[in-house]
Amino acid sequence: MESSEKISAAISAGVDVFRINFSHCSREEAFMRVENIRKAEKEHGRPIAIMADLAGPKIRIGMMKDGQEMTEGSLVAIHKELKEGDKNNIAVNHPEIVDNLFLGCEVYLGDGDVRLEIVKKGKDKAIAKVTAPGKVRSKMGFSAHGLALKKFEISSKDKADIKIACEAGMDAIAASFIQTDLDIKAIRKLVEKEGRDLMLIAKIETQQGIDNAQKILDVADGIMVARGDLGYAIPMERVPHVQKELITLARSKNKPVITATQMLESMGQNSFPTRAEITDVANAVMDGTSGVMLSQETSKGMYPLESVRVMAKIARGAESYIPVIDLPELNEIYDAVATSAVSVAEHIGAQFIAAFTESGSSARRVCRHRPDCPILALTPSISVARRLCFSWGVMPFVAKEPKGFEELDDLVRIALQTGYFKAKKGGTVVIVAGVPFGLAGSTNLLHVAKI
Ligand code: PGA
Ligand code: MN
Question: Which domain holds residue 166?
Answer without folding.
Answer: 4-57+151-261
